[in-house]
Each structure stands twice: as C-alpha cells, then as structure tokens.
Prior knowledge:
Elements: H1 2-6, H2 8-25, H3 32-52, H4 54-80, E1 110-113, E2 120-125, E3 128-134, E4 144-151, E5 154-159
Parallel strand pairs: 3-5
Antiparallel strand pairs: 1-2, 1-4, 2-3, 4-5
Helix pairs in contact: 2-3, 2-4, 3-4
Amino acid sequence: MIFIVNNLPTILCLLAGIALVVAEMFLPGFGVPGITGILLLFGAVLFTWVNYGALAGSLMALGVIILIAVAVILSFRSAARGRLSRSALFLKQEEQDGGQLPPPVEPGREGVVQTPLRPAGTAVFDGQRVSVLSEGAYIAAGEHVRVVKVDGPSITVEKL
C-alpha cells in the first residue's frame, strides 16, 4: 500500500496518459487530448527516472511504448470487429445488392433531416443515411429538405 501511495503521481500520469492517447485516435485531428496524453506519459517516465534512477526510468519508457502499442492494437481491433465497431462513433454506408454501394444522391431528391443541420448534419433519402450541408441556415431534425447541389462528397440541401 505504501508503494502505491509513494508512486501515485506516476501511476495517475501513466493511466491518464494512455487513456488520452487512445481517445485521441478516435477524435479528428491531433489536439489537446493527444498532446496532454503524451506529456503525461513523459511525466510518468520522468517521475520514475527521478525517484528510482536511469535504469528504472529506461524500463518505464520501454513499458510505456509497449503499453501504447498494445492499446493502439486493441483499439483498432475493436474499431474493426469488436464492440466499438457497432458504436455510434462510426457512420457507415450500408452495402446493398451484392456488395454494391447505393447510388449517390442527385439534385432534386427529397428527404428528411435526421440530425439538426448547423449547417452540417445527417438526412435520410429513401432509407439511405447521408451526411449533408444546409445552405447556411439552421434546419431542425424532422424537417423535409431537397438536394440543391452535389459536389463530390459534399451534398447541399435546402428546407422545403
């Protein structure tokens, strides 16, 4: 018990750092969680180095690298096949008709907004869930919209 109390800053830095680095993998860009996680992991290695010497600090650095590698592998495996792949974090296009993707949404097609458009959100067109943009105005969920313009992956809609 005394060991845990004496090494609480190191343990907290290690656990919080790994959690933040894993969380950063599922957030767009490289931002505050990733940088903070890396700094906390560096802090755990530094605490170990100062309290127990160079050999222990080097072993802690090796352990951190191994833990991050395992966390990354498990996170990607879960994202591909596990519980995380079935979560709402991932917007998937459902394949239909023998593996063929549904045709793109064409201008003039009408649908219903699924999430509020501020200006981006999701709408449903004939059962197909699609990411869309409004022409700049807020559109509440449940409103009917019409596709105005399709420019590659960008689909612009207007409220009916």
